[in-house]
Specification:
Blueprint (H helix, E strand, L loop, with lengths): L10 H6 L12 H17 L3 H11 L9 H8 L15 H17 L1 H8 L5 H22 L5 H7 L4 H14 L5 H10 L4
Length: 193
Amino acid sequence: MADVTITAPTAAAAVEQPLPPRPAARLSRRGLERLDLMLLSVEALDLNGGEAMVWMASQLGFGSLFPNRVELWKRRCYNPLRLACRRGELSEAETDALISLLCAMAERLYPMLRQLLSASEPEATTQQRWQLFRTRLDELVRERLNPRRGGVQKLLDPQEGPRLQRQLVQGLAFGSGRGGFDRLKASLMDAAA
């Protein structure tokens, strides 16, 4: 019987093989809904949120993607909960730009987010802040989203709405700071609820 020697592939051989192409990371329907709802929450927190987003987009270098409010609105209309919904998908570059914009706005609004989520604030003050936020968000939701959709009805429901609105504010806080883009993108990619 002849001796057979089996050799393991060398490290150099393993490095030479090209990696398979990475599939484009597209947001699911639920991810798009959540992204747009968080952008709507930014508008509820900042009365000039729409203009601030366009200004922030130009500061971040996305002026060609979002030169004005109309172009920003067109990208946000891929949310199936909208009254005027667009079919198709956002490109990965557009998705990343919207997430970057959302993170920058969350960073800018972080003091407000912290006040809303803080347990050390007086209860009456916290309730006042939440009521103001809920009132503004409800107005925007009624104005821009389709009230016949189940997700919109849950958001406007007096029982379930406050929990969902708190999740949106927590998501904004989650996306602020160092590493916020990666955290927020991962949570949007995994959005299932």
